[in-house]
Each structure stands twice: as structure tokens, then as C-alpha cells.
Design goal:
Chain lengths: 284, 387, 537
């Protein structure tokens, strides 16, 4: 069960202070967010401190992991554990998005038709069952998002980034470093472009379409779903960048490159979520 | 209905240990005493009777299953113990019995499902009511509005009537402690009454056990349920969804009366409504306003802002010395009319008449230390509405 | 509950540097050892149990007689909320994660958890969450007073304490997800050669399914409270009809998490009992295969029954009927488990040490709770009982007499393995008998209160409920005080006592009983040989 070049036993790390540092960072972040949301003093400082500590912790912890990996301390069994865990982690992310997709489904299929039904007419007279809507008490008109502008371009961008990352993977497996690096650079650029367009779209929505987070349940679901997706793209791009830097440093071999694969899986997951969004948020 | 006797009141005052012991005895001796009530309240609608019977059936079924299973366990515990020298048998699988105890419970469940389904279908059938009443939950009172029938148009609030002193143990508790209101819902006997529920602030739940009625009052939605009481009497329930600090203090009281009494009651309500309608153009004097405002305040505002105007900070602000109250009257009127979304401060514009709002605002601006000496006229309230 | 570390080196072929650890508090803060982390989980859980229990005593004191005596209604609601959140997320769940940490690597012959460092983080996320929850009592406006179900719009009205609760839930969720990924990966990937999934001890099976339930349901809860947060502060209208949302939507999302959550609590409890009953019956567990299928079935069905908590919210008749039938279905696999335990005892050679007593207590009382659950599943009947003390009685039977008793059973069962000493059997038995008697005094009368119509979540009640409430409060205080016995028992066993053999229970089977007691700091650095006859505990 052991790989020639790796440890014979299952790797158990030595004691580490990074976890508790991470917990402290989260406590700071939570405190900061609570103070900020309630407009109490010093929230910003806590948030900043939390981010700083979290960043230090992430560098420290992942630096450690990379060191262990490059130090050949992970055998194949450890590698399998990583794969299992990444798969379960992505599953948990899927369920997180499921909550928001579920909410969208619920309002469109159940609550809006219900609010517009004859039984509720006594409360919300004149409210029609239509989508998009900002709800029966909405005052201002707004323009909903159209699928065939920026969103369609973004779909193409993400789909091609899925292709480039796969191409990079082929390069890695075939030991073509050049291809690996070019592929990763392309993927990162596509990701950044996506984010740029997304920001542009948000600004348009706020300034020209009167479509805000507060625009009833359409605005709520639109911004929360695309916002969390955008956040995940940001994470993905960051992770891809780290992988790119590691690739430049000569990390990974054709056989052993779990970190690369994990990030690629994650990137595909983000991609698939976008397809779902494109269909149910923008298109239908 | 659970009855309550003096004997029980005496029981309550017994010391801890003794009462505990009596409690155990009470459990053993069963429902000898009405307050040690062991079962559902006595049903007074056909639906409630069905539920009652269904519950009895279920209880019998689960008791039988329980006794059956634990008879076997008890046998093992007695005869298969090591201290009796019993040697362990060696078996650990038997497909036949395993199938049997998968299938038999499934069959029992299917059998139960039939009465359970029909009782439910009947409960949800709100069609063809004789009378429809809209029930609105507020923090913390009920609003009743008769939509159809002779009483159509009758509309009032129903608030807990138990005096504060009883709750704070400063006065002996009355017979219907916490289950009494100033104005109960009045309905005729033997008529199918459809109840529409909704709420303005948070979710409440309108519930009367004797009718087997319990329906959430969800803000922004109407839900419905129904009952047909076949016995005159007063039936009591409580709000059954946590709705904030006074959730335990918003009882539901329904008075079921004969057709004649109902007709008399309706006539009385109509007359009162006619005479109580305020002349919107009347110009009020300060002392008249304050007298009326004090009443409105006690009924609508005191539960949060307290009678002494001190509120319960930081959640419920003090009105005594409040910047808004002492500030321009427009701001004061606005918060009372429109409320403040996301807080417990409700939009009273929909609940109170122009005159009442004028009175309560004037009262607040003159009560306690806020001696502003201002008069507010209903016309000003009217002008402020919708702004 | 701690492995003495001198024993850790005995017979330990020196390998990497990881047998060393810093001394003092640093050991506990930085540890990557599953036993250390398991002990921390267990201690944390017990402390939280006392905190949550103290809150329940405040509740029971206020309910001792009608009228408002000790606390204001607002504070009562806060105690109610925190009692439930702390008991569920702080006491019961961490207790079983503690067992999982201690026992799963030993049961499957693994050197440690799959991700020992992340394991440490899973634990150390709990204290910040506990701090947020408990400190929220002292901020302006106090803690969330919404009940543990956090229903909007009430939760939108709450003050800053609500935000603290939301972030605490987020952090607890992270902890649970990481912990579960760790446990699931350990079970799937670190079993000793020869131990196939169907030869794995049942406790591992229950955790495999529980881990799955956690990974699937905690993110849903995170989504729900995130929407709550944005509704509170950023003007979204997920739960506000005026904007096209629906307060009931929150309930759907919450219970889509909440119902699996109750089996997250119940399944590991089933696992523990499935080890204890065979050990003290001196027989193999009856029906291992059907047990596994039952666990999987319960796990699966639990995702499809959530709206049985929402029968009175006005969901359509068809919805009520569907959820009623689906809920009834769960009784079948649960029944299979009960019958298998009963048959395991049948013609065994029974003895009644404390772990067995608690397992039997579990069996009797959990069945009562399960059967009342079935009564609640009938929509028509639930409309009478929803939000009454009947429900409170139901879930305390399954969670206190179910999960907590099972946790005690496991504690007494494995204490000799952890400490190397036998515990004080007399005190253990006393603990059991006091617990079971007072538990029933406290919670059985609540069935009657509920039937008679006493609503839950009220600080004051009308007079016809007075008598049973006195009984219930007396029972609760008795039960609470009896729990302090466990502290004494554990302290004694940690300090000393009769030496425990590697297999202190003659009927116990499994790899964990092949290593010395106390278990060495590092148990199986190399995968042990697996004897199939040892399988199925
Ligand atoms: C460990 C936790 C746990 C467990 C295991 C269960 C198990 C079950 N629960 Fe419970 N439940 C809770 C924790 C739990 N519950 C909590 C916390 C709440 C309240 C939440 C809140 O509102 O705050 C709740 C509330 C609750 C409700 C909502 C009540 C209401 O608010 O109105 C319902 C309704 O259907 C219900 C049903 C069931 C059923 C059918 C089971 C079944 O799984 C039980 C199955 C077991 C058996 C049936 C016994 C053994 C079987 C046999 C011996 C076989 C033969 C039996 C037959 C053929 C009948 N539960
Ligand atoms: C697993 C979870 C769990 C556990 C273990 C418990 C344990 C207990 N619970 Fe809890 N309970 C819930 C989960 C749990 N509960 C939930 C989910 C709710 C619903 C909340 C809601 O409606 O939102 C609830 C609600 C609830 C209510 C209903 C309140 C209401 O609706 O108004 C009551 C009332 O009797 C109660 C009582 C108790 C008691 C007496 C115990 C006892 O078993 C506790 C015994 C333990 C102790 C008492 C600790 C011992 C410690 C000491 C003796 C030291 C004391 C120290 C000092 C005083 C300094 N609980
Ligand atoms: Cu209204 Cu509870
Ligand atoms: Cu449930």
C-alpha cells in the first residue's frame, strides 16, 4: 500500500497551533460582522483583524500542508483520504446552494401563485401571478435581468475556463509544463473576466435597472444566488492562482497532484452551479 | 373543559415535597380529580370527537405494542440472566422473523392510516360555511372581523382580561386565570363557522382545543379552518405559536350561544357601532383627548411601552422623554401610523381610527414628563395617513 | 477520560516525531491525537450539558406554579432558546462526536482520524460558538427569544443577540461539517485490511450515515440563517410576504435540516446501544444486516418527512397526507432495530452492569418516545397536540432518555478503556436508578399537560395545569441533581480504582478490546490483523 517514494505509514501530523488560530480569526470576524451590522463602534477593526489573522492562518496551515506534500510524507492512502474529503466538501457546498435554489423554487412555484390566488385577494388585491416580481407591496418598477446579454457571455467564459483547466490537467499528466502553466493562466484570466463582467452587471442593475437587493423576492434571490456564486468564483480564482504559483515553482508530478485536481473539481462545481443559475435565474 | 376547584387551589399552595408525593398518587389514582386531567379536553364538535376517538385508538395501539414488546423483554430479563446460570444461545440471523417484524408493523400502520386520513380530510373541508370570521393576530391580542352573516362588519379586539396583579402574584388568581378576555368571539350554536386567520407582525396561532381547531396566523397570508359547535358554552384556548414576550398572555375565548342570543348580540353590536362612530370633523379639547388617549394607550401601547411610559429598554423604548415623542408631531404620528418594519412596533394606522390615534398621540405628548400641552385633531391624523 | 501519556509509549515502536507533544495546556490546544480530541469533546459536552441543564432548571422553577415568579417572559424565552440550542448543539452532538473520535479509529484499526489536524479545528470551533451563544444573554436586548427554531418574523424583530446566534450556528455548522467529513473519510478509507463495510462495527455504521446526514443538512441550516441575516439587515424579503416571500419558507428550510438533525442525534445513540446490549447478553448482535439497512433507511427517509412539524401552518391537504404517510414509514425501520435488540437479549446470558442498565433504560423510554412520535405523526391528532407539552414530552423521551441515556451507557462502557480503571459500580447504578425515576417524574406528566391543552413556550399557565407542573418541576430538579453523580464517578475513575483488563467486559468484542486499558496514546500505527469472528460486536 505504500508508494515507493512516500512514507509507509498513514501520515499523522504533529501538534499544530493553526486550528486554534483559525478559530480565533472566526471569532473576530463574527464579532466584527455583528458589530458592523448593528452599527456599533469598532466593527471594522474586528473585521480587519479577523481577516488578517485568517490570512496568516491560511498561509501557515497550507504552507505546512504543501511542505508535507512536497516532503513526500503522504502515501497513496492519504491521497485517497484527500479525494474522499474533497468530494464530501463539494457535496456540502452543493447543499448550501440547494437551500437558495430551494427558496427560489418555493417562491416561484408556491408562494407567489399563492399570494396572487383568489383566496388571498382580500389581503393583496390586484397582485398578479407573474415572474419576476418584487412582491405585492412593491412600489417601484424595475427591469429584470435578461439571459442573452452578459449572462450568456459569462456562461461561455466559464464553460471555456472549464475546458482550459482540463487542458492544463492533460499537460500536467503528460508532463508538459508549458501547457499546464498556459492552461492555468488562461483559466485564471477567464475567471477574472467573469468576475469583472459580473461586477459590471451589478452596477448596471443598481444604476439603470433599479434592481437592488431590496427589490422584493426577485432581487433577494437574484443577488443572493449570483452573489454567493460570485464569491465561490473568487475563491476558485484564488485557489487557481495558488496552484499556478506552485506549478511555476515546479510542484506536482504527473502521478501525484491532488491539490491541482481538487481545485479543478471545485472549479467544475462552480461551473455547474453557474449553469443552474443561468437556466433558473436568468433564463426561465 | 377542564374544571377547576377550590381543592386544587389549596393543593397548589402545599409545600414542594408533599405536592410531589401527591402528584405521584394523583397519577396513580387517575382522573379522580378534574384538574389532574389525563386526556384531551371534552370535544364539542363532530370533528373534535373524531380526533378524540382517533387519539384513543392510537393510544390503545401503541400501548398494546409497547406491552407486547416489553413482555418479551421482561421474560428475557427474568429467565435469561447469567445469575440464573443461563448459557447464551448462538443465533444471530433469521430471515423469516426479520421479514415478519418488518411487514406486520407496516400492516398496522396501513390500518391506522385509514381513519387518520378520513378524519383529516373532514377537518380541511371549509366549504359552504354559514358564517365567516377573519381573525387577525397582533402582538399580543386578537382582532375579530365578521365578514359574512348578520354580523357582517362587526369588528373588535380581544385582549387578555386577567389583571396584572394576579400575574404578579399580588392578588389571588381568578377562576379563569389567563384564559379570560375583555371581548370574546361570539358565534351561534350549530352553525358552520369558517375562520380565516392572518397576522400583522409575527406568526400567531389561533387554537381552541374543544373544537380541535389550531391554525397558524401567518402575516401576509390567509389560512382557514372551521368548526361547528354543538353545545352552548364558553370555550377557551391560547395562542399556540411563540410570538414574543407576551405569547403566554393572548388567550382565545369563544362564546357559543343560541340563535336568539346571537341575534340579540348582533343587534347590540350594530347599535354600538352606530353610536360609537366618531364625527371625523369634531374638534377635540385637550382634556377630552387625554381621557380618551389614556384608554387607548392602556389597551394598545402599555404592553410594550408600559403604563408608566418607561418601556422595557433597550427593546421597547421609553416614551417618557423620547426624542420622537418630544419632537415634531409629524414624526410621532408617522411612527404610530406606519410602525417600524423589522421591530415589534406595529403600524397602528390600520388598527385605530383617526380619533384614537389623535388621542393616543396627544396623550403621549402630555403624559409623564412630556408636558408639551399640544392638542392633536383627527383631521391632522387623516392628513398624515399615506405619507 | 484522558489517556495517561506515560502509557502512550509502552511498546510504542518509535517512529516519527509525532509521539511527542507539548506539555500543559499547549498539549490540548495543539493536539492532533484523536483520543485527546475525543476527551475534549466529551468534557466540553458535559460542561454544556450543565449549562443547558441549569437553564432548564430556571424554566422548571418558573413553571413550578402559576404566575410570574423569578424571570420575566422575555428572559424565559431566551432561556428556552438557549437551553435547546446548547443541549442539542453543545451537549448531545459533541458527546457523540467525542465517542466517534475516541472509538472509531480503535474499532477499525486506524492510527488516528484521517485528518488529525483538521480534527483539532473541528473541536476548537466549538468554544467560539459557545461564547457567542452564552455572551448573547448579556448584550442589550438579550439572547434570541425565538425558540430554537428561530422562526421569522419574530427572529427579524430580535436584537443583536439574534445575530450572535446566527453566527454561532454558522460556526457550529462548520465544525459539524468538518468533523463529519473527517469521520466519514476515516470510516471509508482507514479500515484495517479485511474489514469490509459489512463487517464493520455498528457504531461505525451509524456514524457513517450520521456523517452523511450532517454533511447534507448543516449547509441547509447555514443557508436558512444566512437568509435570515440578510432579511434582518439588508432588506431582502425571503420571509416577508410584502416582497413576495413567505415566513413559512423558513420553516420548510429549517425542518429540512431539523428533521434529519433529530436522527443525527438518534443514530449514534442506536450505535452505542448496539454494542452494549450484545456485550451484556453475551451474544452476537441479532440481525446485523437488517440493522445496517434500517440505519440507511432511517437516514434516507429522514429527508422526506420534514413538514410533520408544520401541520398547522396551512400546507395543503395533499401535503399533510403525504407527510403523514412518509412519517409513519419511519416507524418500520426503527421497529426493526428495536426488535433486533430485543432478540439479541433473548436467550442470552444477561448481566446488569451500569452500561446495560442505561441501554435498557434507553430501550424502554426511547420506545415510548417513538410511539408518541407516531401519535404526533397523525395529522388530525397533531392538530390537537402541536405546540403543546405532549410534544415536549415526546422529544425529551427520545432525546434525554434516548440519546442522553445512550451516551451514559457508552460512557460507562468505555470508561475502563479510556482511564484504565473500573468505575464505581455502586454509584453508577445509583446514578441510573435516580435518573430513570426522576426522568419519568419530570416528563411523563407532560403528556397529560399536553393532552389537556397546555401550550409549550409559555412562562405562565392557567390553574388547571398547576398540579402536574409541580410534579414535573420536582422531577426535573431531582433529575438534574442526580446528574452530578456522573462527575464523581468519572473523577474517581480517572484518579484510580481497580485496574481494568484490556477486555473488562467478558461479552465485548472488537479491535478496541484487544489493546491495553488505558488505550495507549497511539493505538494502531500499523493496521492490525482482523479476525472476522470478532466482527459484529
Ligand atoms: C432524537 C430525536 C427524535 C427522534 C428519534 C424522533 C422520532 C420521531 N418523531 Fe419526533 N421530534 C423530535 C425529536 C425526535 N423525534 C423533536 C426535537 C421534536 C420537536 C421539535 C420542536 O418543535 O422543537 C419532535 C417533534 C415531532 C413531531 C412534530 C410535533 C409537533 O410539533 O406538532 C412529530 C410529528 O410527526 C414527530 C414524529 C416522530 C416520529 C414518527 C418519530 C419516529 O422516528 C419514531 C419511531 C419509533 C417507534 C415508532 C418506536 C419503536 C417501534 C416499534 C416498537 C415498532 C412497532 C411500532 C409500530 C407498528 C407503530 N416528532
Ligand atoms: C438533547 C436535548 C435536550 C436535553 C438533554 C434537555 C434536557 C432537559 N429539558 Fe429540554 N428542551 C430541548 C432539548 C433538550 N432538553 C429542546 C430542543 C426544547 C425546545 C425548545 C424550544 O421550544 O425552542 C426543550 C424545551 C424544554 C422545556 C419546554 C419549555 C417550554 O416549552 O416552555 C422544558 C420544560 O420543562 C425542558 C426541560 C428540560 C429538563 C428538565 C431537562 C433535563 O433533562 C436537564 C437535566 C440536567 C441538568 C439539570 C443539569 C444538571 C446540573 C446541575 C444540577 C448543576 C446546576 C448548577 C447550578 C444551578 C449552578 N426543556
Ligand atoms: Cu400570539 Cu403566541
Ligand atoms: Cu421531525
Amino acid at each position: 500500500m505504500s508508494h515507493p517514494a512516500s512514507a509507509s505509514r498513514y501520515f499523522v501530523p504533529e501538534p499544530s497551533h493553526w486550528p486554534v488560530v483559525g478559530s480565533f480569526a472566526l471569532l473576530l470576524l463574527a464579532t466584527g460582522a455583528i458589530l458592523t451590522f448593528n452599527s456599533i463602534a469598532y466593527g471594522g477593526y474586528f473585521l480587519l483583524g479577523g481577516f488578517a489573522v485568517l490570512t496568516v492562518m491560511l498561509f501557515g496551515w497550507f504552507g505546512r500542508v504543501i511542505g508535507e506534500s512536497e516532503g513526500q510524507r503522504y502515501n497513496l492512502q492519504v491521497d485517497r483520504s484527500f479525494r474522499w474529503s474533497m468530494a464530501w466538501f463539494i457535496f456540502s457546498e452543493v447543499m448550501f446552494f440547494a437551500a437558495f435554489f430551494g427558496a427560489l423554487f418555493y417562491v416561484r412555484v408556491l408562494s407567489i401563485p399563492d399570494l396572487a390566488s383568489a383566496e388571498q385577494a382580500a389581503l393583496w388585491e390586484g397582485f398578479k401571478n407573474q415572474w419576476p416580481t418584487a412582491g405585492p407591496a412593491a412600489k417601484d418598477a424595475f427591469t429584470p435581468m435578461h439571459a442573452w446579454g452578459i449572462p450568456a457571455i459569462n456562461t461561455l467564459l466559464l464553460l471555456s475556463s472549464g475546458a482550459t483547466v482540463t487542458w492544463a490537467h492533460w499537460g500536467l499528466v503528460a508532463n508538459k509544463r508549458q501547457q499546464l502553466i498556459v492552461g492555468l493562466i488562461l483559466t485564471v484570466l477567464l475567471g477574472l473576466l467573469f468576475l469583472g463582467l459580473q461586477v459590471y452587471e451589478y452596477r448596471e442593475a443598481y444604476s439603470h435597472f433599479n434592481l437592488k437587493l431590496t427589490t422584493g423576492v426577485y432581487g433577494s434571490t437574484f443577488y443572493m444566488l449570483t452573489g454567493f456564486h460570485g464569491f465561490h468564483v473568487t475563491l476558485g480564482v484564488t485557489m487557481l492562482t495558488v496552484i499556478l504559483l506552485r506549478a511555476l515553482k515546479g510542484h506536482f508530478t504527473g502521478e501525484r497532484h491532488f491539490a491541482f485536481e481538487a481545485v479543478a473539481w471545485y472549479w467544475h462545481f462552480v461551473d455547474v452551479v453557474w449553469l443552474g443559475l443561468f437556466v433558473v435565474v436568468y433564463w426561465l | 373543559m377542564a374544571r377547576y376547584s377550590n381543592k386544587n387551589r389549596y393543593l397548589n399552595r402545599l409545600r414542594l415535597g408533599k405536592a410531589g408525593l401527591l402528584g405521584l398518587l394523583g397519577m396513580l389514582s387517575g382522573a379522580a380529580n378534574a384538574a389532574w386531567q389525563l386526556n384531551l379536553q371534552e370535544p364539542v364538535t363532530a370533528t373534535a370527537r373524531r380526533v378524540y376517538d382517533l387519539h384513543t385508538l392510537l393510544t390503545v395501539v401503541i400501548v398494546v405494542i409497547f406491552v407486547g414488546v416489553f413482555a418479551v423483554v421482561t421474560y428475557s430479563l427474568i429467565f435469561h440472566r447469567k445469575s440464573r446460570g443461563h448459557k447464551p444461545a448462538d443465533f444471530h440471523d433469521n430471515t423469516t422473523v426479520e421479514l415478519a417484524w418488518t411487514i406486520v408493523p407496516a400492516l398496522i400502520l396501513i390500518a391506522i392510516a385509514f381513519p387518520a386520513t378520513s378524519a383529516l380530510v373532514n377537518m380541511r373541508d371549509t366549504s359552504q360555511p354559514d358564517l365567516t370570521i377573519k381573525v387577525t393576530g397582533y402582538q399580543w391580542k386578537w382582532g375579530y372581523e365578521y365578514l359574512t352573516g348578520d354580523a357582517a362588519g362587526v369588528k373588535y379586539m380581544s385582549v387578555l382580561a386577567t389583571p396584572r396583579d394576579q400575574i404578579e402574584n399580588k392578588a389571588p388568581k381568578g377562576e379563569h386565570y389567563l384564559l379570560e378576555v375583555d371581548r370574546p368571539l361570539v358565534v351561534p350554536v350549530g352553525k358552520k363557522v369558517r375562520i380565516l386567520t392572518t397576522a400583522t407582525d409575527v406568526i400567531h396561532n389561533w387554537s381552541v382545543p374543544a373544537f380541535a381547531v389550531k391554525t397558524d396566523a401567518v402575516p401576509g397570508f390567509l389560512r382557514d379552518t372551521w368548526f361547528r359547535a354543538d353545545k352552548e358554552g364558553t370555550y377557551r384556548g391560547q395562542c399556540s405559536e411563540l410570538c414574543g414576550k407576551d405569547h403566554g398572555f393572548m388567550p382565545v375565548v369563544v362564546e357559543v350561544v343560541s340563535d336568539e342570543k346571537y341575534a340579540a348580540w348582533v343587534a347590540e353590536q350594530k347599535q354600538q357601532m352606530a353610536s360609537a362612530a366618531d364625527d371625523p370633523n369634531k374638534v377635540w379639547k385637550l382634556d377630552e383627548l387625554l381621557a380618551r388617549g389614556e384608554k387607548v394607550y392602556a389597551a394598545n401601547c402599555a404592553s410594550c411601552h408600559q403604563a408608566n411610559g418607561q418601556g422595557l429598554p433597550p427593546v421597547f423604548p421609553a416614551l417618557d422623554g423620547s426624542k420622537i415623542v418630544k419632537g415634531p408631531k409629524e414624526g410621532h404620528l408617522d411612527i404610530v401610523i406606519n410602525g417600524k418594519p423589522g421591530t415589534a412596533m406595529a403600524a397602528f394606522g390600520a388598527q385605530l381610527s383617526d380619533t384614537d390615534i389623535a388621542a393616543v398621540v396627544a396623550y403621549e405628548r402630555n403624559a409623564w414628563t412630556n408636558k408639551l400641552g399640544e392638542v392633536i385633531q383627527p383631521a391632522e391624523v387623516k392628513a398624515r395617513r399615506g405619507k | 477520560m484522558q489517556a495517561t501519556h506515560t502509557a502512550g509509549h509502552a511498546g510504542d515502536h518509535h517512529h516519527d516525531d509525532h509521539a511527542h507533544y507539548p506539555s500543559g495546556w499547549k498539549r490540548w490546544v495543539t493536539t492532533t491525537n484523536h483520543k485527546d480530541i475525543g476527551s475534549m469533546y466529551l468534557w466540553f459536552s458535559f460542561v454544556m450539558f450543565l449549562v443547558g441543564g441549569a437553564m432548564s432548571l430556571i424554566i422548571r422553577a418558573e413553571l413550578f406554579s402559576p404566575g410570574l415568579q423569578y424571570v420575566s417572559p422575555e428572559f424565559y424565552n431566551q432561556m428556552l432558546t438557549l437551553h435547546a440550542l446548547i443541549m442539542v448543539f453543545g451537549a448531545i452532538m459533541p458527546a457523540f462526536v467525542g465517542f466517534a473520535n475516541w472509538m472509531i479509529p480503535m474499532m477499525i484499526g486506524a492510527s488516528d482520524m484521517a485528518f488529525a489536524r483538521m480534527n483539532n479545528w473541528s473541536f476548537w470551533l466549538l468554544p467560539p460558538a459557545a461564547i457567542l451563544l452564552t455572551v448573547s444573554i448579556f448584550v442589550p436586548g438579550g439572547a434570541a427569544g425565538t425558540g430554537w427554531t428561530l422562526y421569522p418574523p419574530l427572529s427579524v424583530q430580535m436584537g443583536i443577540g439574534m445575530d450572535m446566534t446566527i453566527f454561532a450556528v454558522h460556526i457550529l455548522g462548520m465544525s459539524s461539517i468538518m468533523g463529519s467529513i473527517n469521520i466519514v473519510t476515516t470510516i471509508l478509507n482507514l479500515r484495517t485490511p479485511g474489514m469490509t463495510l459489512m463487517k464493520m462495527p455498528l457504531f461505525c455504521w451509524t456514524w457513517l450515515v450520521t456523517g452523511f446526514l450532517l454533511i447534507a443538512s448543516m449547509p441547509i441550516l447555514a443557508g436558512a440563517v444566512t437568509m435570515l441575516l440578510t432579511d434582518r439587515h439588508f432588506g431582502t424579503t425571503f420571509f416577508n410576504a410584502a416582497g413576495g416571500g413567505d415566513p413559512v419558507l423558513f420553516q420548510h428550510i429549517f425542518w429540512f435540516f431539523g428533521h434529519p438533525e433529530v436522527y443525527i442525534i438518534a443514530l449514534p445513540a442506536f450505535g452505542v446501544v448496539s454494542h452494549v446490549i450484545p456485550a451484556f447478553s453475551r451474544k452476537h448482535l441479532f440481525g446485523y444486516t437488517s440493522m445496517v439497512y434500517a440505519i440507511a433507511a432511517i437516514g434516507l427517509i429522514s429527508f422526506f418527512v420534514w413538514a410533520h412539524h408544520m401541520y398547522v401552518t396551512g400546507i395543503p391537504l395533499t401535503g399533510q397526507l403525504y407527510f403523514m404517510y412518509a412519517t409513519m414509514l419511519i416507524a418500520v425501520p426503527t421497529g426493526v432495530k428495536v426488535f433486533n435488540w430485543v432478540t439479541t437479549m433473548w436467550r442470552g446470558s444477561l448481566t446488569f452492569e451500569t452500561p446495560m442498565l442505561f441501554a435498557l433504560g434507553f430501550l424502554v423510554l426511547f420506545t415510548i418516545g417513538g410511539l408518541t412520535g407516531l401519535v404526533l405523526a397523525m395529522t388530525a391528532v397533531d392538530i390537537q397536540l402541536q405546540d403543546t407539552y405532549y410534544v415536549v414530552a415526546h422529544f425529551h423521551y427520545v432525546m434525554v432518555a434516548g440519546a442522553l441515556f445512550s451516551a451514559y451507557s457508552g460512557l460507562y462502557f468505555w470508561l475502563p478503556k479510556w482511564t484504565g480503571h473500573m468505575y464505581n459500580e455502586g454509584l453508577g447504578k445509583l446514578h441510573f436508578w435516580l435518573s430513570i425515576i426522576f426522568f419519568n417524574i419530570a416528563f411523563f406528566p407532560q403528556h397529560f399537560l399536553g393532552l389537556a391543552g397546555m401550550p409549550r413556550r409559555i412562562p405562565d399557565y392557567s390553574q388547571q395545569f398547576a398540579d402536574f407542573n409541580v410534579v414535573s418541576s420536582v422531577g426535573a430538579f431531582g433529575f438534574g441533581l442526580s446528574q452530578l453523580l456522573v462527575l464523581i464517578v468519572v473523577f474517581q475513575a480517572v484518579k484510580g480504582g481497580a485496574k481494568a483488563d484490556s477486555r473488562p467486559w467478558d461479552g465485548a468484542h472488537g479491535l478496541e478490546w484487544t489493546v491495553p486499558s488505558p488505550a495507549p496514546y497511539h493505538t494502531f500505527e500499523d493496521p492490525p490483523a482482523f479476525d472476522a469472528a470478532e466482527a459484529h460486536a
